[in-house]
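Bumping my old thread because nobody answered last time. Still need a sequence for this structure:
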C-alpha cells in the first residue's frame, strides 16, 4: 500500500478518536479479536452439528438402493417403481427427515413437486454393510407368502384393519380400496409383488391413515408408492411456523426470540383464521369418521401445514392414531401415575391406582389439544373487536376434558362456536 494511502487510512480511522480511547486501543483490539474467535468457534460448531445431523438423519441413498434392488429382483412392485428406478423421473431432493428410521425428502416427479417417504432400519442395528441393510429390509416383504389365494389375502387385510381400526361396518369397503390401490396394472388381479408391497405399506401408520382418510380435504393426497416407499403431494408450508430452531441450537436461542420471529414471519391474521378453520374441520373429520375415531397424540405446530391458498393440510399424520390402537395399548397396562398411561406424546388416560392399571379412554380430546396450539397461533395480531370473544372461546376449549362418550355434544358446540366466530370475521372478504 502506498505511503500516502496508509496515512489517509490512519487519519480516517484514528484521528476522530479521543486520546483516552486511543490509549485503550490495544485492549479494545484484543477484546474484538477474542469476540471474532468466539464467533468463528460458534459458527464452526453449528456447521459441524449441521453436517453431523444431516449425515445421521439423511440416508435417502440407502432407501433408493434397497427399494430399487428389491424392485429389479421382482420382490416388490408399485406405481412409482419405474419412475424411481428406471426412468429416474422421480428424484429425491431436499432432506426433511427428523428421524434416521423415517426418511422424508422433497422431490420432483415429472416436474411436479412431491414428498417422498421411506422407512429404513436403525443404523445401530446393522453392521454398516449394504448387504446387512438389504437382509433386514427383506423381513418387511415376507407376507403374504407364495400360494396365498386372493380370498386369503382379503381375509388377511380384513383382520389387520379390524385390529388397527376396530370393528367398523365399512371395513369391507376399505379392503376393496386397498385391493384397488395394490392392483397397479389394473388387471383385476393382485400379484405376489403387489401384495407384498401393499402389506408392507399398511404397517406404516401414516400410510394406513392416508388410505382411510383419502377423501378428506385436509389430508395430503397419496400419489404413488414402490415397496414401502410412498409419494404424496407436497404441502407448500409444512408447518404453522416458518422458523424451526434446530435441537442443538435451542439452548442458545431464547424461546421468546424464536416465538417473536415466528409472529413476525406469520401470515396475516385473516389468513391464519382461514388455516384455523381448516384445522378445526380436520378435527371434525377424524372425531367420528367412516372408519372410526382417530386421536391426535402430538398436536405440534410442525405437523400442521397449509398450501398456497392457506387451506390447512396435515403435513405429518404419524402422530395420529386410531382410537382402537390407543385403547389396545392402554388395556391392561400397569401404572403408578397418569403419566404411565400415555400413548405417543400426549394421549393420556387415567391410572386406576387401586388395581395399578390404565383406563382405556383418553381424557383430553383432540379439540382441547388443538386449541392449546391455537392460543399462540391465532391470538397475536387478532382484531381488537374480536380478541375478547376469541380468548374466551379458546379458554373454554382448552379446558375440555372427560370421556369422549360423555362429551360429544359439548365438544361439537365448542368447535362450532369457534368456527362461526372466525368465519363471520373473514366471510365476504378476499380471505374467504
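Sorry it took so long. Here it is:
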Amino acid at each position: 500500500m502506498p505511503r500516502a494511502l496508509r496515512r489517509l487510512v490512519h487519519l480516517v480511522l484514528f484521528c476522530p478518536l479521543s486520546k483516552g480511547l486511543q490509549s485503550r486501543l490495544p485492549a479494545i483490539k484484543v477484546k474484538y479479536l477474542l469476540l471474532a474467535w468466539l464467533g468463528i468457534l460458534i459458527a464452526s460448531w453449528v456447521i459441524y452439528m449441521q453436517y453431523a445431523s444431516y449425515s445421521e438423519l439423511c440416508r435417502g441413498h440407502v432407501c433408493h438402493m434397497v427399494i430399487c434392488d428389491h424392485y429389479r429382483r421382482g420382490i416388490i412392485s408399485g406405481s412409482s417403481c419405474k419412475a424411481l428406478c428406471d426412468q429416474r423421473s422421480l428424484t429425491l431432493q431436499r432432506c426433511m427427515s427428523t428421524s434416521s428410521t423415517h426418511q422424508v425428502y422433497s422431490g420432483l416427479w415429472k416436474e411436479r413437486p412431491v414428498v417422498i417417504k421411506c422407512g429404513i432400519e436403525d443404523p445401530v442395528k446393522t453392521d454398516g454393510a449394504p448387504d446387512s441393510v438389504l437382509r433386514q429390509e427383506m423381513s418387511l416383504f415376507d407376507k403374504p407368502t407364495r400360494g396365498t389365494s386372493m380370498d386369503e389375502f382379503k381375509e388377511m387385510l380384513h383382520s389387520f384393519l379390524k385390529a388397527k381400526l376396530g370393528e367398523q361396518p365399512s371395513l369391507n369397503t376399505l379392503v376393496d380400496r386397498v385391493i384397488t390401490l395394490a392392483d397397479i396394472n389394473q388387471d383385476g388381479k393382485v400379484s405376489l409383488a403387489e401384495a407384498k408391497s401393499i402389506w408392507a405399506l399398511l404397517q406404516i401408520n401414516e400410510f394406513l391413515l392416508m388410505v382411510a382418510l383419502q377423501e378428506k380435504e385436509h389430508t395430503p393426497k397419496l400419489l404413488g408408492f414402490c415397496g414401502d416407499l410412498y409419494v404424496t403431494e407436497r404441502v407448500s408450508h409444512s408447518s404453522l411456523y416458518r422458523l424451526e430452531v434446530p435441537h442443538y441450537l435451542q439452548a442458545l436461542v431464547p424461546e421468546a426470540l424464536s416465538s417473536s420471529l415466528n409472529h413476525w414471519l406469520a401470515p396475516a391474521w385473516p389468513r391464519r383464521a382461514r388455516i384455523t378453520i381448516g384445522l378445526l374441520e380436520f378435527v371434525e373429520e377424524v372425531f367420528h369418521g367412516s372408519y372410526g375415531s382417530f386421536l391426535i397424540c402430538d398436536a405440534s405446530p410442525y405437523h400442521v401445514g397449509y398450501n398456497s391458498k392457506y387451506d390447512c393440510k396435515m403435513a405429518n399424520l404419524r402422530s395420529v392414531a386410531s382410537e382402537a390402537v390407543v385403547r389396545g395399548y392402554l388395556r391392561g397396562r400397569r401404572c403408578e401415575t397418569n403419566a404411565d398411561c400415555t400413548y405417543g406424546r400426549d394421549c393420556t388416560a387415567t391410572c386406576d391406582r387401586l388395581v395399578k392399571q390404565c383406563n382405556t379412554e383418553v381424557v383430553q380430546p383432540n379439540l382441547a389439544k388443538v386449541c392449546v396450539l391455537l392460543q399462540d397461533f391465532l391470538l397475536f395480531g387478532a382484531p381488537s373487536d374480536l380478541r375478547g370473544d376469541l380468548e374466551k372461546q379458546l379458554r373454554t376449549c382448552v379446558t375440555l376434558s372427560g370421556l369422549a362418550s360423555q362429551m360429544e355434544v359439548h365438544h361439537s358446540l365448542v368447535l362450532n362456536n369457534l368456527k362461526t366466530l372466525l368465519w363471520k370475521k373473514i366471510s365476504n372478504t378476499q380471505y374467504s
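The chain has two domains: 59-121+134-233, 251-428. Let me know if any region looks off to you.
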